[in-house]
Amino acid sequence: MADSLSENIRNLADDIGIDALGFAEASEFSDYALQSSKRRDPKLSLPTAKSIIVAGIYIGGITLPAWTNPWYGRTSRLYLSGFFLDVVRPLDPIVDLLKKEGYKAVVCDGSVEGGSVLPLKLAAVRAGLGWQGKHTLLISKKFGTFLALGGIITDAVLEYNSAQEPNRCHKCDRCQQACPLGALDQPYVLKRDKCLSNLLQVENLPEEAQAVMENRIGDCEICQEACPWNKKHLDNPLVTKMTQSFRKKVKQLEDFFYLPNLVKLSEKEYRKTLGQLNTDIPYHLFHRNVLIAMKKLI
Ligand code: B12
Prior knowledge:
The chain is built from 13 helices and 6 strands. It is α+β, with helices and mostly antiparallel strands.
């Protein structure tokens, strides 16, 4: 039973364009630092949980040429991918299959209150997709850190991953050296209040962050760009099943991030254009970041 269902899910994932997939047991994440979080234990979301399905979609190619131009606002691959709050919609066919087979399925969905039910990086490690790097991100040998993750908790028994990837960071500390605010001074532990990705989406944006943000108006990828496992993806991103649809979406946004235009952008236009990216970053914070990036130019 486990084999054919696992096989069917793998085949479906291929059809969908999911680039990495793994199954893991739905036991507690006892080493999860946020022990008060529901993410700690899948059974808090589905008491009869047996398995976790972890999916990764490659976002390495989702960049905007204008990112290196200070007159354009810079964001990130995750930001432009539409998976900022987890890979959710692409998992629908797998959820439908599980339900058709009589199983329950709870999807990890960061866009829903209380919906972020899995520590996706730890689940991905347990499911064999890679190891956790010193920048705390999941590193896949094939896809680097450029996998947007999604997960499903289910009471179906599946073919579990048996071997976890070894940690291949060894002595490398390039991400730690590269972070302009020292958010990674301690390897494997991110200081959230020093991480530009966090600071650009919270009320208080300290002077020291403004001094190093350059044209970044949403998210920061400095630690990822320093990671040697991403080099081949920075130079020559892979072409995957979803590449075409990502390219089409990004093409539409090419001129949108021209800072002088963004200064005049209304909240209504912001929601209309960037609503599809589902970042839930409030307009007033986005616009604040735009004004600071603009001030650097004049
Ligand atoms: C909260 C959050 C953030 C916060 C805080 C990040 C953090 N590291 O906690 C902020 C807003 C800063 C953030 C930023 C980003 N995020 Co984020 N984020 C999340 C979210 C919602 C929860 C992460 C979490 O559980 N944090 C709590 C901390 C305690 O857990 P942790 O990070 O795993 O830390 C572990 C290690 O420190 C470990 N540890 C401690 N000591 C040691 C020692 C060793 C040897 C080891 C191995 C481990 C270890 O213990 C902790 C776990 O208990 C997830 C979605 C999800 N549901 O999982 C997305 C998620 C992790 N984010 C993601 C991404 C891509 C980013 C950004 C890269 C976006 C960008 N800028 O481009 C940045 C990168 C910053 C970074 N270097 O982590 C992706 C990661 C994909 C991947 N391939 O890893 C996720 C999975 C979203 C998604 N659906 O794809 N994020």
